[in-house]
C-alpha cells in the first residue's frame, strides 16, 4: 500500500526542508549544482555548515548502491533518507543523479535508464509530515543494512483523527494516540522540553505534524526500524554514539507478529519467542538465528477435514490475539462445540462471552500472573496430540511415583541394615570380654526348664530369678530382666563377675544369644 507524493511536492519537501531549513546550499566541493547538472561516483552535495551530505552510498554487507542523505560529521554512518529504495544500483560511477530543468531530481543507472525520480518514502521522519491531497507515508527498512521498504509503514490517519498509525501489511499495528493540545502525539512520556518542540496543525486544507529540537546543537532523529519500532535518538559527542531516549512500542512483545504464527512471546525470559506446544519452527535455521517472523507450524495436522477428531489445549494467562469473532452462546461447552463444528476455527475463549478465531494466530503474548489482561485461550490441536501429551504426562507421573517408592524402600532397607549393624556391633563389643567364658542357651530351652518361668525364687532391682531343671536333672537359677535394656550395664557386670567363677557344685553361667 502507500500513496506517494509526486514530483513538485518532493522537490519542495526534500530540498527545502533538508537544505533551506538547515541553511544549506548545493555544492560539489565549492561548486553548486544547477538544473541540467548531475553527480556520480563519490561526488557529494554538502550543506554550508557540513551537517548533512547527499550522494551515493553502499550499506554494510551489501553490494548495492543508493542515493541518500546522511549526517556528514557523525562518524557512525547514519542515513536519514534514501531515494532508490526499490531499485538499487550496481555501479555509482556510471550512474548519475541529475537536477532536471523542470526542477525534478532524476536518477539513471549505468544503462541510462531512469530508476527513480521525485518520490519519497523514508524511514527517518522529516521535521514536517503533511497530509494534503496526497498522503505522506514513511516505511521501515527491510533490515538493518537493507534500505528496501519493509513491511511497516507510518502514516497519518486518513480519517482525520489526528493520530499516526504504524501499519503492518495493511493492518494497524500500533497507534501513537490522538493529539491532545501540547501532549506529544507519540505519548506524554516523550514530551521533553529539553529536546522537542511539537506542533500539530489541522485545517480544511491540510493536516500535519511538526517537531524541532530546542537546541540547534543537538542532533536528534526519529527512526522506524525494521521491527516497526519508533525510536528517538540523540547523538552524544562524549561517547560518540546514538543514545536512545524514547521508543514505542516499548516492550518487544508489543511488536506486531514478532514471533510469527503460533509463536508465543514472553518478555520475562531470555529467548523471547517460543513455539506453542504441538508446534515447531517453520524454518529452524532462521528461527535459531533470531528471525522468528515466519513463525511455527503444527507437528500434527488438524484432522477435521480428514474425518478425524480434534481437541483443545489450554494456554493460560495470555494477551488474546486480535481479529476474534464473537458468537452468541450461553456456556463454554457451547463455545467449544461451535469452534469444533467449523474446521477453520483455530481457537476459542469464553469469559462470559464466546470468541473464536478463524485464522492462524498472531501476537500471542504471555503475561505475568496477576495481570488483569490475562485470559485463557483454548488452542485447537489434533486429538492425537492430546493423547500423546496425556500419555507422556501419565508415564512421567507413574515413573515418578514408582521411582519415589523404590527410593523410599531402598532407603528404609539401608537404614534398617545400618541400625542392625550398629546394635549388633554394640552388643558384640559389650559381650566380648566374657563371651569365651559363657554358655549360650536358647530362650525356648530356658522357658521349658523353668516351666514357663513359673517358680520364682526371688526378685532383684532389675529382674526376677526363677528355678529351673535342665534335661540332665541339674537344677539352675534363671534371672530374667523386667524389660529389654533395663539394668543392662549392671547385669553385664554381674555376668562378667559370676562367669569367671568355677566350682564343682555350680553349673557354668550362661546367657541368651
UniProtKB/TrEMBL annotation:
Residues 451-513 form the Protein kinase domain. Residues 1-29 form the signal peptide. The chain crosses the membrane at residues 400-420. Keywords: ATP-binding, Disulfide bond, Glycoprotein, Membrane, Nucleotide-binding, Signal, Transmembrane, Transmembrane helix. GO terms for molecular function: ATP binding; protein kinase activity. Residues 304-382 form the Apple domain. This is Uncharacterized protein.
